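Researcher: I need the complex structure. Ligand is coenzyme A. Inputs:
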Amino acid sequence: MNKTAIYPGTFDPVTNGHVDLIKRGLAIFDRVIVSVAPSPKKAPLFSAAERVEMIIEATADLKGVEVEVFEGLLVDHVLAKDAGVVIRGLRAVSDFEYELQMALMNRRLSSKVETVFMMPSEEYSYLTSTVIKEVAGYGGDVVGLVPDCVIPRLEKRFGK
Ligand code: COA
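Model: Output:
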């Protein structure tokens, strides 16, 4: 059985909800490759390299995590990594439609790629990277919602 899973996303920046999902993935798979999409359409606050750096720091104490940038189609990346499984988080019903669309399109693109959905801890169920940036941008406290290594980077970016 192939025990590598890909956890893709924009991660601008990584949140504790993402880290929670990575940990849940590691309970099932031997290796979780966190794959950072550049996502230029989202006009990210952090460069892909910075996002990778933050995830590496945030998961330094976890065994079996790899972090990298991927370009192009997710299914091509999954097959190139010989993984076969994509992990996605389902936080609320509102996530479902988009996730279903993506999972079915990915299945159409490759029948060799399966999507596994996991629920993050409820304490992070309302988090998105956009909400974090919005709150941090107005000087709000995001301690406990993002890994500690993300805080100084947000402060620097927002001129604190
Ligand atoms: N905890 C906290 N927040 C979470 C979360 C969790 N467990 N899971 C998702 N989110 C948030 C993200 O922070 C993100 O917030 P944002 O919109 O404010 O940035 C949002 O929910 C969902 O985005 P994310 O998980 O980053 O995924 P995405 O939708 O940006 O990325 C890709 C989707 C990159 C996987 C997808 O676009 C892709 O595969 N691209 C490659 C091209 C391709 O193959 N396209 C065809 C796909 S059908």
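Model: Summary of the prediction. The mean pLDDT is 96.
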